[in-house]
Amino acid sequence: MNYDVVVIGAGLGGLMSGITAAKEGKKVLIVGKGIGIITIFTGTIDYLGHYPPEGIRPLDSPREGIAELIAKNPDHPYSKVGMNFIEGGVTAFKEAAESGGVKYVGDLDRNFLLPTAVGTIKPTSLLSSSMAAGDLRDEGDVLICGFQGLRDFYPAYMAHNISTLTVEGVELPHFRGRTIDLKLGAGSSGMTSLTLARKFDDPDFLEGVSMALYENVRDGERIATPAVLGLRRGDEVIKYIEKVVKTKIFETPTLPPSVSGYRLYKALEAVVRSLGVKLLLGYEVTTAKVEKDRVLEVTISMGKREMLVGGKAFVLATGGLVGRGIGSSETNLVEPIFGLDVTGPKTRSEWFNKSFFDPAGHPINKVGICVDENLLPMIKNKKPRFVNLFVAGAQLCGYDALKEKSGGGVTISSSYKAGVMASSL
Amino acid sequence: MRKDIHYPADQCVKCTICVEHCPVVKVTDKFLGPKQVGPDFQRFRSDGETPHDISLEYCTGCRICDVVCPSGVNISELNTKAKIALKKEKGISIRDRLLSHAYMFGHLGSIAAPATNTFMKSKALRWISEKLLHLEKDLRYPSYTSEPFERWIEKYSFQSEKKVAYFYGCFTNFNDPDLGKAVVKVLERNGYQAVFPKQNCCGLPLLGNGDIREARKLAMENLEGLFKAADQGLKIIYSSTSCGMMIRDDYATYLDLQEAERLSEHLVEVSEFLWGLYEAGELDTDFQEINMVLPYHIPCHLRSLGIGFPSIDLMGLVPGLEVDELGTYCCGLAGTYGFKEEKSDIANAIGGELAELLLKSDAEFAASDCEACRMQIENLSNKKAVHPIKIILRAYGLDKKEDEDEDED
């Protein structure tokens, strides 16, 4: 079977590349071993939280930080992608999410400062509209409301931890925690956020919760809840509650399973389907047939048989070390499908610095495939290994998503550019 | 690392993606979820320990957990093996034995089809099945045909150099022989003569109910005929995605029949086969227009076969036809699962989203490649459900002819 663009990987990057190429009118296949971390991450897109990475205070404007970063660090994925494609990616992502039913707000001019479920502060740029009222710089103290029986969300713990923090130049609001008993009758092991979120789609349940929230909130407070406010009804749920409680309400992402991540996945999956992209899940791409500097076909392992798929262009978005787009052994790091060069510490003893909280981060977090300005993978950083294989997302080399808070932004930017580049062949 | 347990249990990173996508967890808390009863409990299972958790019973065997897992854990295999061990310990109920032997009623049923069908609908049987056997009382059971497919093929006369073997399965044989005829005629239109290896029920209902011994007996009968076809170099076509999965994957995985693996090169799903012809420029694409938006449901076992969704591509060739892939996972019936009294509410709840979409659609009928999904579609909505090959048959203008044939009969 032949396609214009074959995308390998069905996480956030793979879906974005596929959507981008399909919008360029290409016949696209996305093939993924699973669905990546997209349904378990927070669903917020961080572009640049800290720069330089050692900086304690979150950046106010990711745009300024990225411009400085590009000027100083030509090997960073953002430098390879370039400001135009970074901007283009923001627009493309927001459009895609919204057309799939999840509205995203935010831009590169501002980092929202959001409270997390463990009571830390997270700088992020794009977030679902259900979280927008959570910026710590906004007016209003915060009532954190949890629900009895829900696993892994503890309002008092969250409130206490945030109260110990300071952000230079920002007066943080006062937080107080309450756990509401909704008489859910959750089993001894408790209820996951996804199970609870489904209940919020029921109008009667929603009415009951809204009343309970109204009874607990004080004048001048806004309300934080775990991200469980419905799965299928979009903004309707929040709008309804706000009408009852007469104040702002916002969601805080939970530990996995993450409702906000799941909603984003469902939205992008719907867009993929509506664009006529073929999405094959549960299939592993094992090897590639190449001729000199071109990829001709990839082999998809289908149960006990194999299928060859040809393409004019390919996008590799299989994730980093954790997502297994990069494989490792005691003494080596490999990219398993194309055998691309992986830059980083080869032996495990070199993966980590001595101190866990080393301000410089750990070498292993920067490993990846180095690319040129077209996102083509390089041989020993000199020339492209292939001319029709574009690399995107967490497997790019030269950045530390954990230190910089740049994971989502790098993935969206590079996968958008990879989709455009792949469509130009 | 133990040889009998595939080590991927340890590859599980507890990400919960499988739990998020499990259709059963979505609607009931009786099932702890694929992660818990799969890789989590696997650590505590050993030769001396059997999996006591009754919650395992509520797994429908849809295998979506395997499809979405980013870490390559064979979750459904761990669960199915644990379920088999549980059944071994607890025994299999009469009700489950009856349900999983539906193919035997096929023989009986078709001999006296009108009487059987009347009996199946009768209040007496309903009472027996509900009160004594704990079967779901409101579900429509498939009706039996008076002329099984295997009798029709005796009259089948098309001859060609190009041959393919066809494993039609017991549902086609006893309940939906028109599907078998459609497959044969569509193949014939493209110059292929179907030949029919000796066959019986594939054994999946037995496996689903934990009856390994009986399943293995059937498997060995089938393998004899299928090996013969394979040795002649024939492709083996199947029109039931569940039968295909059972033979290709499960014979080796669960029934200790590793030799079945050599069939994997030969087994081809019918739409996959026709799409292959299309790609080679050999498919007759002289289709008549069918102007409709056709709701199409992807069966779980088609997903787990890992061959893509060939019937969507194939039906896409028919002018005027817009295939609306509903994006639904698991219809809920899951073979014999939905027929059981204690599970029927769960089965219907799982199918809720599918039902909602079907009821919204104006189409008179829907399509799916799996017989259980088609039964469930008809149970959940006011629509008839057909196999995609019947759509192709109609696009060739061959469905009319069939009616005439039957009139002559």
UniProtKB/TrEMBL annotation, chain A:
Name the gene for this chain: glpB
Keywords assigned by UniProt, alphabetized: Flavoprotein, FMN, Oxidoreductase
Q: Can you name the source organism?
A: Candidatus Zymogenus saltonus
The segment(s) forming the FAD-dependent oxidoreductase 2 FAD-binding domain are: 4-410
| TM segment ranges | none
Q: Name one Pfam family in it.
A: FAD_binding_2
Q: Lineage in the entry?
A: Bacteria, Deltaproteobacteria, Candidatus Zymogenia, Candidatus Zymogeniales, Candidatus Zymogenaceae
Report if keyword Cytoplasm is assigned.
Answer: no
- Name by which UniProt lists this protein: Anaerobic glycerol-3-phosphate dehydrogenase subunit B
Q: What NCBIfam families does the entry give?
A: glycerol3P_GlpB
GO CC field? glycerol-3-phosphate dehydrogenase (FAD) complex
Q: Which Enzyme Commission numbers does its entry carry?
A: 1.1.5.3
The GO terms describing molecular function are:
glycerol-3-phosphate dehydrogenase (quinone) activity
UniProtKB/TrEMBL annotation, chain B:
GO biological processes: anaerobic respiration
Keyword Ribonucleoprotein, does the record have it? no
Q: Which residues form the signal peptide?
A: none
Name the keywords, alphabetized.
4Fe-4S, Iron, Iron-sulfur, Metal-binding, Repeat
GO CC, sorted alphabetically, is: glycerol-3-phosphate dehydrogenase (FAD) complex; membrane
Location of the 4Fe-4S ferredoxin-type domain: 3-30, 50-79
**Short name of any one Pfam family annotated for the protein:** Fer4_8
Q: Which SUPFAM superfamilies match?
A: alpha-helical ferredoxin
Q: Which GO terms describe its molecular function?
A: 4 iron, 4 sulfur cluster binding; metal ion binding; oxidoreductase activity
Classification via NCBIfam families: glycerol3P_GlpC, PRK11168.1
Write down the PANTHER family for this protein, in alphabetical order. Answer: ANAEROBIC GLYCEROL-3-PHOSPHATE DEHYDROGENASE SUBUNIT C, GLYCOLATE OXIDASE IRON-SULFUR SUBUNIT
Name under which the protein is recorded = Anaerobic glycerol-3-phosphate dehydrogenase subunit C
